[in-house]
Amino acid sequence: HYNTLLATLTSTVHTGLNTLLTGIKELDTFPDVVALATPWSLKDSSLEQLAWQLDSCMSVTSQLLLRGFPQSRRISVDSLMSLPVRLLGVTIDPSKVNTPQDQLVVSLHSMLCVSSLQMTSALVTCLGDQLLPEAGRINNLIVAGLSKARAARVRTELYTCLSTWLECAQLGSGIEYCAGQLLTNLITDIVPATQKMMLQTTSGNSKKNKKKGGGNSSNFVSNRAEVVDRTLGLAAVRALGLRVSVTGPWLDKETHAKAVQCVLSQLMAAEVTDPLNPGLLSSLQMTSALVTCLGDQLLPEAGRKNNLTVAGLSKARAARARTALYTCL
Question: Counting Cβ atoms within 10 Å, is residue 178 exposed (0-12), middle (13-18) or buried (19+)?
Answer without folding.
Answer: middle
